[in-house]
Amino acid sequence: MTKTLLSFGHGYSAQALARLLLPLGWRVIGTTRSDQKAKQLEQDGITPVFWPGADMRDHIAQASHILVSAGPDGSGDPVLAQCCDAIANRAKDLTWVGYLSTTGVYGDHQGGWVDEKTPLTPSTKRGTARMKAEAEWQSVSGLPLHIFRLAGIYGPGRGPFEKVRNGTARRIVKDGQVFSRIHVEDIAKVLMASIICPDPGAVYNLCDDDPAPPQDVIGYAAQLLNLPVPPEIAFEDADLTPMARSFYAESKRVRNDRIKDELNVRLSFPTYREGLQAMLADSTKK
Questions:
Q1: Cα first-last separation, the chain
Q2: 84 pLDDT band (50/70/90 cuts)?
Q3: What is the pTM of this model?
Q4: Is residue 148 within 8 Å of residue 190, measured between CB atoms?
Q5: What are the percentages of helix, strand and coil residues in the chain, rounded to 5?
Q6: How many other C-beta atoms are found inside a 10 Å radius of the C-beta of residue 33?
């Protein structure tokens, strides 16, 4: 029987997972809002569905697995708002449901370590919305739910090289500030491992082994490009958008032991160094 993944909000991370599933004979249904994206999904072998807007009941009925990347809005989780009954009615027939959340649910720990057992104390609106959305999904009875708390995502098309090349990269320094991050291919690897060995109710942190200050990443990218390392700018002096500034409101180091111990995942890119090296090597081949 063909396995079918229904992907709500078929974006960057979901596309990486689809690249692993399609060669194995899976069918992937992905939701999108744009005509251009729909055409690209079709070219990639994915069945596009325009959502919000489409009646999703038939697609939910066809799914053996569901991945939710769509983020919450002011009214809560948009998938459950429109499809809760259909998903709940299908719960016993689903093999796996994955919800992509964020490590922002842990809040600020002033550079300290957090793991999946750390109490959720988000300090931003985005983190609070994700915490509430997690609880909404956990309240659906009988659902084989897996929650994945993602650190900062990078990968092809999402890296510092372009800004370093065009001179717009900034090394903003805030004392004690560190971020955890994860390469998109390692996100797909963890999701695949969970699909192979489902554990309903499990929560996983998705991040690499090296929480690092953001200025170090920019500096390393410049070194790889043999370009001057951008000068440091104090956080207090940086002209940042409210969104960008909010990222600096929290500092923590995220542990990833569970994906290694329970899913037997070995990261392809255990630090940003391997990830940036691979991205640059791939870009030079094109």
A1: 38
A2: very high
A3: 0.96
A4: yes
A5: 40, 20, 40
A6: 11
Peptide bond into 52 cis (omega under 30): yes
- Residues ≥6 apart with Cβ < 8 Å to 180: 103, 151, 152, 207, 208, 211, 252, 253, 254
Contact between 158 and 149 under an 8 Å Cβ cutoff? The reply is no
Buried b (16+ CB within 10 A) or exposed e, 154-178: bbeeebbbeebeeeebbbbbeeebb
Phi, psi of 242 (to 5 degrees): -55, -40
Identify the helix (H) or strand (E) that includes residue 172.
strand 171-173
In degrees and rounded to multiples of 5, residue 204 shows phi and psi of -130, 135
Residue with tokens 């994945």: 148
For residue 106, which amino acid is it?
Y
3-state secondary structure (DSSP) of residue 222: helix
Whose tokens are 């991370």? That residue is 13
